[in-house]
Amino acid sequence: MLSSIQLPATKEKSAQCTIKFTGQTTYSTGSNPRSVNIVDVNGDGKPDIIVVNSGSNNVGVLLNIGNGTFAAQTTYSTGTGPFELTVADVNGDGKPDIIVANYGSNNTGVLLNTGNGTFAAQTTYSTSNGPSSVVAVDVNGDNKTDIIVANYGSNNLGVLLNTGNGTFSAQT
């Protein structure tokens, strides 16, 4: 465990300063946590934690209490073997939604943020075999967030275009 780091105070001077870290705080997750993202999900201005629990087939949301600690996770079901997640506003309501690559189910799940840090059940979109990575970006210039999926088992990428209100077309 890292307990301190010494860094030069400036380039010109040889003075040293010491930075100390307290011991690690751990939080329970589901089985086989695999991917993590940090974003304010409930609009309180504090970064919250979202984690993919691959062995438990869910994502966990840990809300920031505000004093450097987090509440116990609230879990939301995903497909089988979720591998990775990303966060983006996919329905234009200004709230971050969760997008997860469900490796074992061969689909991508979208969990819409319903407010106050809670999420609706996932809506799934078929992908090729073994989706292992997802990113969210507007790929066609229509000001809607689309999804790009890396399909490990098929050696290809899939694009799901946002059709509005957080729904997506079939993978192309």
Question: How would you explain this protein's 3D organization?
Answer:
By secondary structure, the protein is an all-beta fold. The chain has one domain (30-168): Methylamine Dehydrogenase, Chain H, CATH 2.130.10. Helix content is 0%, strand content 48%. The protein is built from no helices and 17 strands. It has strands at residues 4-8, 16-20, 33-39, 48-53, 58-62, 74-77, 82-88, 97-102, 107-111, 113-115, 118-119, 123-126, 131-137, 146-151, 156-160, 162-164, 167-168. The strands form six sheets. It has a four-stranded antiparallel sheet, with no helix packed on it. Strand 4 (48-53) and strand 5 form a beta hairpin. It starts with a strand and ends with a strand.
What brief labels describe this structure?
172 residues; mainly beta; Methylamine Dehydrogenase, Chain H; 4-stranded antiparallel beta sheet; globular
Summarize the structure.
With 172 residues, this protein is an all-beta fold. The chain has strands at 4-8, 16-20, 33-39, 48-53, 58-62, 74-77, 82-88, 97-102, 107-111, 113-115, 118-119, 123-126, 131-137, 146-151, 156-160, 162-164, 167-168.
CATH architecture group name: 7 Propeller
The count of strands amounts to 17
Please trace the helix and strand order, writing H or E for each element. EEEEEEEEEEEEEEEEE
Order of the strands making up the biggest sheet: 3-4-5-6
Distance between the termini: 46 Å
Q: Kindly report the average pLDDT value.
A: 92
Query: Major beta sheet, specifics?
Result: 4 strands, antiparallel
Structural class: mainly beta
Q: Could you name the CATH homologous superfamily?
A: YVTN repeat-like/Quinoprotein amine dehydrogenase
Strand percentage: over 45%
Give the C-alpha Rg: 19 Å
Shape: globular
Integer count of domains:
1
Portion in helices: under 10%
Helical stretch tally: 0
Look at the structure and give the CATH class. Mainly Beta
CATH fold description? Methylamine Dehydrogenase, Chain H
Identify the quaternary structure here.
single chain
**Which stretches of 5+ consecutive residues score pLDDT under 50?**
1-5
